[in-house]
Amino acid sequence: MKIQKEALAGTLESSDLMVKVSPNSGIEIIVNSEVNKQFGAQIRSVVESTLAQLNVTDGLIVIDDKGALDCAIKARVQCAVLRGAEVEELDWSKLL
Amino acid sequence: MYSSLEYSVVDISKQQSVLESIERLLHLAGLELDPRLSVFVIAIVDSKIVACAGIDRDIIKCVAIDPDYRGNNINLGLLEYTIKYANEHGQFHLFLYTKPENKIFFRSCGFYPIVEVPDLVVLMENTPIGIKRYCQQLSLEKKPGNKIGSIVMNANPFTKGHQYLAETAAAECDWLHIFVVNEDASMFSFADRFELVKAGVSHLKNVSVHASSSYIISKATFPSYFLKEQAKIDKAYMGIDLLIFRNYIAPALNITCRFVGTEPTSEVTNAYNEAMAYWLQDSQVSSMPVIPLIVLERIKENNFAISASRVRALLENQCYDEIKALVPPTTWTYLQNKYM
Amino acid sequence: MKKLRRSMLFLPAANAAMLSTSFVYKPDSIMFDLEDAVSIKEKDAARLLVAQTLQLPIYKESGIETVVRINALNTPFGLKDLEAVVRAGVDVVRLPMTNSAEDIHELEQHVERIEKECGRPVGSTKLMAAIESALGVVNAVSIAKSSPRLIGIALAAFDYLVDMQTERGDGTELFYARCAVLHAARVAKIDAFDVVYSNVNDDAGFLNEVNLAKKLGFNGKSLINPRQIELLHNAYAPTAEEVEYSKKVVEAAEEGEKAGLGVISLNGKMIDAPIIARARTIIELAAVSGVRKAI
Lengths: 96, 340, 295
What we know:
The complex is a heterotrimer.
Chain A: E1 7-10, E2 17-22, E3 27-33, H1 36-53, E4 59-65, H2 70-84, H3 92-95
Parallel strand pairs in A: 3-4
Antiparallel strand pairs in A: 1-2, 2-4
Helix pairs in contact in A: 1-2
Chain B: E1 6-11, H1 16-28, E2 39-45, E3 48-56, E4 59-65, H2 74-88, E5 95-98, H3 103-107, E6 112-117, E7 121-125, H4 130-139, E8 148-153, H5 160-172, E9 175-180, H6 190-200, E10 207-211, H7 230-253, E11 257-261, H8 267-281, E12 293-296, E13 300-301, E14 304-305, H9 308-316, H10 320-324, H11 329-339
Parallel strand pairs in B: 4-5, 8-9, 8-11, 9-10, 11-12
Antiparallel strand pairs in B: 1-2, 2-3, 3-4, 5-7, 6-7, 13-14
Helix pairs in contact in B: 4-7, 7-8
Chain C: E1 7-12, H1 16-21, E2 29-33, H2 43-53, H3 58-62, E3 65-69, H4 78-87, E4 92-95, H5 101-118, E5 126-131, H6 134-138, H7 140-144, E6 150-155, H8 157-163, H9 175-188, E7 191-194, H10 203-216, E8 220-223, H11 227-236, H12 240-258, E9 264-266, E10 269-271, H13 273-289
Parallel strand pairs in C: 1-2, 1-8, 2-3, 3-4, 4-5, 5-6, 6-7, 7-8
Antiparallel strand pairs in C: 9-10
Helix pairs in contact in C: 2-4, 4-5, 10-11, 12-13
């Protein structure tokens, strides 16, 4: 799966995150977090595994985190990717 | 939390009462209404407009909140709504200019500083890698050499003056990068100006012609509503423009100097040349290397310095014969086909 | 002990902060709302967020039942919501605007298909019907009896009152609907939930309504503010006197059993099986919620 167009998901509220995706060759992930020093690596690994589950091969993923739980990170990344890849039919076995 | 908090989009050119509320809100925050704005995102609590943010294409302007409603994350929601609205209208890459003291707030909205003119203004974009990406792309055009020159020109249209500047600079350098200002606010379209520059320097073998990016900013869209005094506005605008050049564009291409022609006819452009010397050569304003500014005397024709503005004036008065002496043959052919 | 369903807390499913903290208020059930609380543009985002939130072990660990209000099946979102939440392991699916038993049968067929597809035990997804129209109220009995998956029916006032050409007032306007829904639930032996009280700043008004619902016999109430949970649980908690009396009833019953007595009496009054059963329920309830505190 490739990111075809720019897309956004999430909010700027506390305990949430905003995910921006755009077309790219290869995967690039940039994490900016208010809790970056403590949890930057953890956030990145959640993002990476979420992308891997969806077989995303190309895309730039920018995360602005406001202290979200892993489940919210996963959901927001999935949403931004699915919007950016213009996927309508979901394969839930890859999402849960 | 306000139970009745709502966000919505308004066109102030169509809603006089909303316009008045927004102006009142801006005045409370010490801001003026930017004349280019018509679309605003507003926050409403109990039927009262308590915060606003304007959208000018890809620039967010005039962000203000009623002092009584600060500290409730209304601003954060407002910016989120604004970003999403812009996205839905095809604008993903957003910019904003603000006072340096607001930098932290906008940072929490996903905006990242590009350059800052101390005490006056900071330019931010909604991606941490926008300008970095642009520079990576630009650096593919990097050329070898010790002395790499640069000229930024509007070329509206390309004259013998521009050509002389390019020829002289190219002769002094291993390579010369010319940037043509990429906006369609001039008499001649960007596409035409760009082609005329390319044609006019095609005989020079060590020159590249680039379109300036969205990072070489347009005076037309530069917001002045929070600076008010003309001297501050000019300083802020030129500071932003030149710091982007010094901190990002020059390093990407290993540019070592910048050329500019003297401006005997225009005080404004002269002030720009002075500012250029300051922002490019002062060792305090930037951590990046100094870019020496080389000022070349303009060439004259019949005791008049050749300038694009003179060509435009002659064109308007249909004095075609006089134009021929001021422009290279490539521009002359273009003007003949288009206007004569 | 039967699952308590006194408080069902509504949460807008697009709100990550609320979703990730709501369990600290310990409602009996949490209802993630994919319907009215989510704008059209955010339906996809909210669906994913709920699906991932349902994976949190905290709900199972703390015994909070998860409910998702899906969009109606005749919208472009309803079936997508259902696909997501059944696979994500939700305890209960709440169907809005249930007008007839057929609505539940249609939902049931989809749920069963999805359960089979994803390997979830068939029948493990429970259902709940929200009644929001005059037709729904009239059909309440057949709706309540329509499926073994149904754990309860809820009255929702807003659309119902529009349908009835009236508006929210002192409760008179809901009198018939409350009674009808409650009777239907009792006939079908499932739970009944009263309407949302939307003025979150009026505790006295809220408690009046809670006491009315409790007296009528509702198992609980839908809530929109976590603050209301404690008030509600307290109002449903037995009083110290009730608990004291119930303990005596149970003691007397146990002694009577030991002695092989056919008729048991306490302080000269006969106590029969329903009274004993009710006393046991009160003691169990007191164990969960404590005794009622004076406010």
